[in-house]
Each structure stands twice: as C-alpha cells, then as structure tokens.
Amino acid sequence: MADSDLTKQRSALAALLRKVVGGQHVLSSAEELRPYECDGLSAYCVVPLLVVLPADAAEVQDILRICHAQQVPVVARGAGTGLSGGALPLENGVLLSLARLNQIIAVDANNSCARVQPGVRNLAISEAARPHGLYYAPDPSSQIACSIGGNVAENAGGVHCLKYGLTVNNLLALELITIEGERVRLGGGGLDGPGYDLLALATGSEGMLGILVEVMVKLLPIPQRAQVAMAAFDAVETAGQAVADIIATGILPAGLEMMDGLSIRAAEDFVHAGYPTSAAAILLCEVDGGNEEVSEDIAQVRERLLESGATEVRTASDDAERSRFWAGRKAAFPAVGRISPDYYCMDGTIPRKHLPRVLGEIARYSEQSGLRIANVFHAGDGNLHPLILYDANNPGELELAETVGGRILELCVEVGGSITGEHGVGLEKINQMCAQFPPEELEMFHAIKAVFDRHGLLNPGKAIPTLNRCAEFGAMHIHAGDLRFPHLERF
Amino acid sequence: MTVDCDISDALAAQVCDAAAQAQPLRLVGSDSKAFYGHPVDGEVLSLAGHRGIVNYEPTELVLTARAGTPLPQIEAALAAHKQALSFEPPAFDGPATLGGAIACGLGGPRRPWGGAPRDLLLGIQLLDGLGRCLRFGGQVMKNVAGYDVSRLMAGALGTLGALLEVSIKVLPAPKVERSLVLSMPRDRALTMMRDLARQPVPLSAACHFDDRLYLRLSGNAASITAWERRIGGEAGSGESFWRDLRDHRLTWFRSEQPLWRLSLPPATRRLRCENDVLTDWAGAQRWVYSDYSATELRDEVAQAGGHASLFRYGDAETPVFHPLDPVRERLHRGLKHTFDPHGILNPGRQYRSI
Predict the structure, then answer these.
(1) In chain B, positions 257-286, which contact chain A (CB-CB < 8 Å)?
(2) Within chain B, which residues score under 70 in pLDDT?
(3) Are residues B40 and B180 both part of a single domain?
(4) Strand partners, A184
C-alpha cells in the first residue's frame, strides 16, 4: 500500500476507535507505534497501522465490530514475550493489546479455580492463589512477564508439563469474542462443557479464531514438598538413557530437565547455580508430593541416576539450594544471550529415544555452519530447545542461523516429532508446517479457521501456511543447487 | 480370540461409497455405549475389526493403538509395565474399545485428578466424511503445531470423523491404592470433599451416596497411611467398588428412570432438581434422578454454571445434550460441515440437527 493511503486509512480508523476506547488508548504516531513492532522474536519487525488498548470485553467487542465492518486485520498481543512472532503486527492491521485487561476477577478456592482477564501475568495467578494453598501449574520460563492470554493462545508449557500438563490441561473455560463481536463461552464451570471441545480447539490457536477476554484456570493444591536432584554425566547419550531409566522406575517426576555442556557453562557463569562446569550434560530431576513420598522417590531417583552412569548426584539440601539449581535452568536463555551477540531459540519435540541421534545431527550442523549451538531440553516430555548462537552484525549470519534452525525442525519431524512443543508456529515456523503436515490437513486447518473467521481477519498469515507457500518452500528444497548455503547438507 | 488387523482401506472405501450416496453411517466399536446420545439410523461402520496395539514403549509413556482395540487388551499391556490409563474409561455394557472411549470422552472416578480422555490424547488418525485419511497431533507429549484437532474429536461422538488410530499418554500405575468409607449426610460430605480437594491429599476418587462418603487414596504407602489417620473412617472395599461405580453397576444405578448427568462447579450446594443424587468427582459430576422437567432441570443447572445431559433412559423427545447458545451452535454446524460435508457420520447422535 502506498504511504499516503496508509496514512489516510490510519487516521480514519483511529477516529472510529477513539470513540470506543478514548483518545489516549489509540496509538497512531510513529514513536508510539515503534515499541509494538515485534514480540519476543525480535528478528522480525513490522510497525502496525494502529495500536488500540481496550479496557474491557465490551470495548473489545466494539473494536472487532469496527474492524470486521472495515475489513481490517487484527493481531492480538498480550505481554509480547512470545518467541515465534505470533504477535508480529501487520502494516495494514490493528494491533489489539490486551494489557489493560489485567484484573484477577476472583480466586474461588472452594471450586479450585480462578477467573482472570487475559492480561494477567502467569505468576500473578499463583501469587494470588497462594494464601489459599493453591497454585496455577503451567510455568513457562517467562512466567514473571508473560500473560495468561498469551499462554492460552500458544498453549504454553514449562518445566512441569510431564506431570501437570500444558495450558490446555489446566483450563476450565474461556470467554472469546468472535471477529463479528459476539461473546461466547467455551468450556464450563465444571470439568467439561457441552458439545465439541471448543476450549481445546481455541487453546493454542494463536489468536486466529477469536480474541480472549476471560480465562477460568484450574488451581491445584501446593504440594507438601518438592525436592530436586542434579546429576552430572560425561556424555549426553548417558544422560538421555538415564531419563528413560527414571521413567522405568514408575516415578513421574514433576520436572526432568537436561542441559548440555555449553548451556551449563553459560548458566553457571551467569547465575552461579553450582553446576559442574566440566560435565557434558546435567539432569535436573524434581519430585513433589507428600513428605514421605518425596523422601522415598528422591532416594530412588538418586540411586537410579548413579546406576545409569551419573558421575555425580547432588540433592538440594534446602529450598535455597533447590531454587539455585532451578535458577540456572530458568536463566539458560539469557545466560546464552551473554555469550553471544544474538541467539535463535528453537522448540522442536522428539520421541525421547531419538535424543542421541538428534543431538548428534545438531552437533554436525553446528560444525558445518560454524555456529555454536547450546541445547536445553525438557527431557521428560521430549521438548528440545537448541539455541543457535550468531551475530546479526555479520552479514548473512541471521539467515544462516534460520537455515540451521529450519533443518533442526525438519529433523524433529523426520524422527516422528513436532516443529513446536510450546512456542507456537507464529510466523517463524510457518515453512516447517509444510514439512509436518500434508496438504489435506493444512486445508482442513484453513477450513476450521473459516468457520470462526470467514474473511481471515484474525492474525492472517500466521500459524498455517497456504498451499502455495508450501509449494514454493518444497521447490526450494528440491532445487538444492540454487540454495543459499549450498555447503549445508539438506534432506 | 480375534487377531490384530488393519482394515483401514476397507473402512475408507465404505465411507467414500457412503459419501457418494449420502448414506448415513452409524459408527460402532463394540457398541458398549449404544445408549449414549440419540439413536442413529444408518448403515453400520464397524470399527471393531480395526484393532491392535501399533506401538507401545513404556519409557516414552506413549501408546498408539487402532481404534477397535478392546480396552482390556490395552490395560493388560500397560499393567505388564506397571502403567495405566489414568482417565479410567468406563466400559458400561461390555468390552469397550479405545476409539469408543475417546469418541465418547467419558472419564471414570479418577477424572478430576487423572484427567479426561482429551487430556491424555496426543494424536489421531481419522477418516473424515469424505473418506479421506487425515492425521493430527502425533506421538509426542507436546505438540502445538496447527489447531488441536485431536482433542476436538474427544467427546464428539464420531460426528466429526471415524477414529482409526489413537496415540495417548500413559502414566505409571499408582504404587498403592486404598479406600475409605465414612458415614455422613450429603451436605457434610460435600464440604469434606471440597476441603480435601484443596489440600495436597493423594486423592484419586471421592464420591457420596446413601449417606456414605467413599474416598480413594493413591500413591506412596507412607503418605496414604498418614492421610488415613487424619481422615478417619473405615477401610473400603477397594477396586471392585470403583469399577462398579465407573461402569454404573452399583445398586444405586439399578433404576430405569431417566438418569441425568450434571457437570457442575464442584462446590455447588444441593440443587432443588437433585431428588436422588450420587455425587462423584468430589462434587463436579452428579448422577441424578429428578422429578423436574428437562427444561426446569437444565435451567437450574445452567444457573449454577453447569450443564446437564440425559445420560440414559431418556424419552425420545428430550435432547440428550445441553442445548447450545446460538453462537456455539453456529460453530458446531460449521465444524460438522467442514469435517463431514454430506452429514453422514453419526448424524444427529449428539445434537439432532447437527
């Protein structure tokens, strides 16, 4: 669109939206719009047409009615911490920030649930529930900052998914506004709702089906006790086998995390967690439950880790040490950020048994590309986060990192896994969707979207690639001779 | 004994033919839940012959099986590795199949703690209403690529697709399970169930009827003993009781009056429509015999934030499932049309006009 057309459209739409939310809650000048140009994936930036910040559900309804009537695309944004570009604005679209819908409406301890607005931070829910002895289980590592609305949109995970599930397993109901501005409740006040499970369909739908205005989350009793063991290994393969050995004991750990040598050293330098920096891999295994149960399980975990070839096993002697063990893991991303000007975080999942092969291949890609790769792994549930280190100031390095990242995701699909475990597809992994899904399934996804959003106004261009895009992407793979970075092996 | 068998090509051909002639199909696993939902007048699409465990690796905590696989076969395979289906699927009138358990979406007494079928579902292969074989989800615990079509199928009663293959998360079986029985009236029992549910009690079932509260504790022996002392009561009869509750074989279910299933915020106090009630899921699921008309009952339940299904022994006119508001009804119709454009898969089984 020509600049002058954009300017005209901007001021006409801004005038309409200001009537809904008031003057100061529509942002339209260049300096106001700039902070919204990206989410947590800062490699992609687009300045939106407008930013609008409604105060409540009724205002969201009015905004969507206007956008629907004007056929203007809408991109929803929570806290902007997403890692796949799901909240990347559109040049000709409205960015709908839900930051002002930030109230905890009620903590209902008797019914073990809380009603919250989408802009409430993940951690704030557990803080509000704590006086009742309850908490909200999913804990993505951005939980201090990320909002529950974004968690629902991405079906966020965390380090406790193996035992407590993802966001979708911890919700009771959602209130959604359709693109036509209608309000609809999905799920129910009990443990299920009538009819199709639209609650599950909407969870992880990346803002493509409707705009969330209220979330009812399930709260769980805070376990009596949690204990963590840290084990060091001199090979990642041994650590991978140890994970299977722990599962085989019949213990379901609350958290089971692996870090490789590069991430161990980066985390240790950053937060001094007490990690053994000479290890090739460490495992963190947390068990929780009743006092007696935790004592028995942690002893068994310790024994099994040693049998499985751990060179050292340490159990946290108190809560402070336990927090320190976890601090290193939770700070792994920023820690890697300190040793490289830029890094690119991947999010593939694999059947755990393929870990040695996948890590071996990743090491080979690293060698071929000359880019260092650190691996952080939700080992219990097979969710791998390779962090590709690069320097955006070196011409071509970002593209190289993206190419290597794409190949890692395709490898995950090849071994029977998925291109994303918890970060979502967004814009980032849209090409790899073509590797994971055949055309019929992709068509079905488009048809589902059309049921909710016939004109494709909600977050268009994200999450589900068009078949044309896949055809082009496929062609790029076939004509390997024309590829950038031809020295990299492809499959 | 029937053998494991892959008949997906024959099933796809049958659905294709039916689609070409707009011939309605009645999807059948073992027909153990034939009573559930509205009757379907159609040619039988029998999934029972499509059976067998395709993949099970205990240390991955994932099992993949064809939809017609009988649950006892799956439960036996899991038990050999001290694992179990944590949603405790009801079998009702016979050897239920895995596909049927997922399509009906019902959970047993463990549901508030162990999850519903949808919570354990990782991936599916299905035939849509055109007979196309589609795959969604996968065999990994975490997978957020694309819309969650797998979970959409759980509880859809086969109206969106015929399930061919299912991958589910399986969990370690509890090391120890013990039951307790306490004599007390309903109101006190409800208060006690909610109090226990709010604390870190290793609870895995809580139900009340006929002035008795039944509790099940699962996990570590020492933890269970500690809680038994705090809770009091007498030792319960154990596994057979919970299985009979799950499959509605307790004497309480003997009546052939219309049986309502109420799904409610668990702390909801006694509703006026609950003339005779068996409270399960620590209050969240209630089986009710009622003098109320369907409309009055549903109004009262909806007021309380829940919904009601006429689970069994209903009359031909009353809708089995709680009527939908106009927006949700439109979305249901749209999804039905997307997956089954000719409306041949279990038409009307869930909502008569969908």
Answers:
(1) 263-267, 281, 284-285
(2) 1-2
(3) no
(4) A176
Q: Is the pLDDT of residue A479 over 90?
A: no
Ordered DSSP codes for B174-226 = PSEEEEEEEE--HHHHHHHHHHHHTTT--EEEEEEETTEEEEEEEE-HHHHHH
As its CATH architecture, domain A3-97 has 2-Layer Sandwich (3.30)
Q: Are A49 and A94 in contact (CB under 8 A)?
A: yes
The H or E element spanning position A228 is strand A225-233
Q: Which fold has domain A340-482?
A: Alpha-Beta Plaits (3.30.70)
B110 contact residues in A (CB cutoff 8 A): none
| Cα–Cα distance measured from residue A420 to residue A412, given in angstroms and rounded to the nearest whole number | 9
The continuous run of DSSP H or E covering B45 comes out as: strand B43-46
Answer yes or no: is B275 within a domain. Answer: yes
Residue among A37, A21, A86 nearest A347 (CA): A86
Q: Would the pLDDT of A485 be above 90?
A: no
Residues 173-212 of A with CB under 8 A from B: 178, 182-186, 188-198, 200-201, 203-205, 209
Q: Does domain A104-221 have CATH number 3.15.10.40?
A: no
Mean pLDDT value of segment A321-342: 91
Examine the domain organization and report whether B82 and B60 are in the same domain.
yes
Q: At what angle do helices A291-307 and B221-231 cross, to 10 degrees?
A: 180
Residue A453 pLDDT: 98
**CA–CA distances in Å: residue A412 to residues A165, A216, A351, A405:** 21, 33, 9, 11
Look at A418 and B144 and tell me if their CB atoms are within 8 Å. yes
∠ CA B220-B226-B230 to the nearest 5 degrees?
A: 140
CA distance B328 to chain A (A): 7
Which of A 15-74 lie inside 8 A of B, CB atoms? none
ipTM of the complex: 0.97
Residue with tokens 């140009």: A37
- Of B152, B172, B192, the position where a domain reaches its end is B172
A182 contact residues in B (CB cutoff 8 A): 327
Collapsed DSSP state (helix, strand, coil) of residue B155:
coil
Of the candidates B273, B266, B306, the one whose C-alpha atom is nearest the C-alpha of residue B289 is: B273
